[in-house]
Amino acid sequence: MTALTLYEKLWNSHLVHEERDGTALIYIDRHLVHEVTSPQAFEGLALAGRKPWRIGSVVATADHNVPTKGLDKGIADDVSRLQVETLDRNVERFAVPVYFPMRDARQGIVHVIGPEQGATLPGMTVVCGDSHTSTHGAFAALAFGIGTSEVEHVLATQCLLAKKAKTLRIRVEGALPAGVGAKDVVLAVIGRIGTAGGTGHSIEFAGSAIRALSMEGRMTVCNMAIEAGARSGLVAVDEKTIAYLQGRPFSPRGEMFDRAAAYWRTLVSDEGARFDREVTLDAAALKPQVTWGTSPEMVVSIEDRVPDPAAEKDPVRREAMERALEYMGLQPRMPMTDVAIDKVFIGSCTNSRIEDLRAAAAVVKGRRVAGSVKLAMVVPGSGLVKRQAEQEGLDRIFLASGFEWREPGCSMCLGMNDDRLSPGERCASTSNRNFEGRQGAGGRTHLVSPTMAAAAALAGRFVDVRRLG
Amino acid sequence: MEKFTLHAGLVAPLDRENVDTDAIIPKQFLKSIHRTGFGPNLFDAWRYLDPGEPGQDPAARKPNPDFVLNQPRYQGATILIARKNFGCGSSREHAPWALQQYGFRAIIAPSYADIFFNNCFKNGLLPIVLPDFHLDHLFQEVAAHSGYRLAIDLPAQTVTTPSGQVMRFDVEPFRKECLVNGWDDIGLTLRREDAIRAYEERRRAAEPWIFS
Ligand code: SF4
Questions:
Q1: Are A280 and A207 in contact (CB under 8 A)?
Q2: H-only helix segments in A300-393
Q3: Is-contact A466 A346, C-beta < 8 A?
Q4: DSSP 8-state symbol, A143
Q5: Spatial distance between the Cα atoms of B209 and A257, rounded to a whole number of angstroms
């Protein structure tokens, strides 16, 4: 028998039909839906007089537009409110069976609630009109973001037209040093292979450092596979995967769980399977990462300085660096630890799970946010994460330090609600994109881990969390 | 879907790499529940000096004279040339909608982000891949000649310059066929209804928990 990669196993098990040129029809098991990319798809379905193929595959929530405070007042912005209400209406009209609307205790960021509910299972294909669907690959599910036309296509046919991706295995071997976590791993990977490094590929994250990560950490890594250009990221099933899924609301139960788990254990790349490309990183050499520019690949370690465009030979790249430094208001060669911040955002589908909040709380416990910081906020990824954190007393630790403790949602990851940066404001953010204007027009985003964001809040500038003592 | 076969048009240059979909259409415009009306907000933060919000009258905005698409010589452009990894970031299909509603029919770049590339084909917008040396040449030519036009022939898979230079490009046969004929993907897939049902039966037997 030929040795197969995990990606090939998932691909083969979902193949419905294949055209001569390799374009395939693949079956979709789970369809996650949120308010931003679904209205036109539901409308298209209705206009064509089509019915959803298997509406039971849909799990819906409102996350991008929801406010993170004053929920009782509803959404003040008319356009945002209409979008959320449109989802409410579509859920009703098309009889979507699972919906976590605003104010539901289980509502949250779509990529946090899928796994939390056990709606994401190993061996599934999972899609959502959202590029960070790659997150769910942490469960050995083939999970990727799609456009709105494809959302409509999945609603109508339960299938997607797709082309088999190439495979890239990224091995992170060795033990991560203290103070270095999943976010640093994935930022370092992007720094190494670039934002287009994974284009056309599915990335499997492997190696002892990945195995040692919790499910939360693996989700953080897979979440940002898309920032490396790969539509999907994967981690093989192991006992941690199976333990995480036990007892979740949508997980199979009893004997069925055992039967499922037996199958899930086969969802690993076979010994000797061939990948189109391989990259290896030494975990022990990794340091806390900070982005300095307007693309996630513009990243250095906290011990480094802002790079100097003058040292870059490629003229297109040099110009991009100059433009980024101008936008970010930074000088070449300044130490990253000299960069002062205005705001801190701990949240987003990258880093808003319980483990992230615990790690950040451990850093800020008994300390105060620097007086120069205008706003430091924690936005849990879901209502359940929020409740768990409150049970553990994390909210009180954050509040006592001067952080705000908010309601779940996407929040300042992209600022479709009221949480955003003002022009020129600089933010230490645990989110995934530092594009121009991402967190608010003219806002300046530096991507970091939750502990690095917490440390920056205390110091009012970037500092090495390992030296905080 | 609008068909794409032959197209000749004015070329506009966007000499940047990693142009992300947040730049193509900023998030405040994603609040729309409609599929149209995005053209005036294409590249909003680069294109205007005043902050863009949904519902503004485009005529009352302050265009940024330094932004390339605002230069008089590129008015009416239908072909955009750009650098590598065009369309990276968010999956928002609003990005190809905005490009198309602005008036673009084709983009030429050395590479694209996967989701964006896919989304273009669903909307009759042709993303052409040409190697860097061709793009270097095109950027020079566009800068040197006002009114620079290109002719695209999708069935023949060629881009032809005013001097008659022919550049060939690759496109997957299935995507090409759909675009040339303006076929609706959903209609095509539904012709495979029996295969989908048979597949579901097999899966239901093997992994019943997926369907519960
Ligand atoms: S948290 Fe940010 S990246 Fe994640 S789904 Fe929401 S907007 Fe997208």
A1: yes
A2: 315-328, 354-364, 383-391
A3: no
A4: E
A5: 8
DSSP per position, A78-127 = HHHHHHHHHHHHHHHHTT-SEEE-TT-TT-B-HHHHHHHHT-S-TT-EEE
pLDDT band at A376 (very low <50, low <70, confident <90, very high): very high
Asked if A445 contacts A439 with a C-beta cutoff of 8 angstroms, the reply is: yes
Cα A195 to chain centroid distance, Å, stands at: 15
- Encoded amino acid at B65, one letter: P
Tens of pLDDT, residue by residue over A406-442, are 999 999 999 888 899 999 999 999 999 999 999 999 9
- Cα gap A91→A354, rounded to integer Å: 29
Which residue spans within A95-250 are E strands per DSSP? 98-100, 125-128, 142-145, 159-163, 166-173, 201-206, 232-234
Given a cut of 70, is residue A469 above it in pLDDT? no
User: A316-320 long-range CB contacts below 8 Å, 24 or more apart?
Assistant: A316/B15, A316/B17, A316/B83, A317/B17, A319/B15, A319/B16, A320/A295, A320/B16, A320/B17, A320/B18
Per-residue pLDDT for A1 more than 80?
no
Set out the domains of chain B in order of their start, with CATH numbers: 6-171 (3.20.19.10), 182-212 (no CATH)
Burial B84-97 (b: 16+ CB within 10 A, else e): bbbbbbbbbbbbbb
Specify the 3-state DSSP secondary structure of B148. Answer: coil
Please, which residues have CB within 8 angstroms of residue B134's CB and are 6 or more apart in sequence? B167
Question: In whole angstroms, how large is the CA radius of gyration of chain B?
Answer: 20
Q: Count how many Cα atoms sit within 13 Å of the Cα of residue A384 in the half-sphere of its side chain.
A: 15
Q: How do A343-346 and A375-378 pair as beta strands?
A: parallel
Considering chain A, what percentage of its residues have pLDDT values greater than 70? 100
Predicted local distance difference test score (pLDDT) of residue A417: 87
The span from the first CA to the last CA of chain B, in angstroms, equals 36
SS3 A358: helix
CA–centroid distance, residue A460 to ligand 1 (Å): 25
Interface of B with A in 180-199 (CB under 8 A): 185-186, 189-190, 192, 195-196, 199
Round to whole Å and give the CA distance between B32 and A213.
Answer: 39
What does each C-alpha distance from B39 to B36, B95, B98, B99 come to in angstroms? 8, 10, 5, 7
pTM (2 d.p.): 0.96
The pLDDT tens digits of the residues spanning A183-206 come to 999 999 999 999 999 999 999 999
Give distance in angstroms: CA of A296 to centre of ligand 1: 15
**Beta carbons within 10 angstroms of residue A29's beta carbon:** 23
CB of A146 less than 8 A from some CB of B: yes
Interface of B with A in 106-125 (CB under 8 A): 111-115, 118-119, 122-123
Amino acid identity for residue A49 in this structure: G
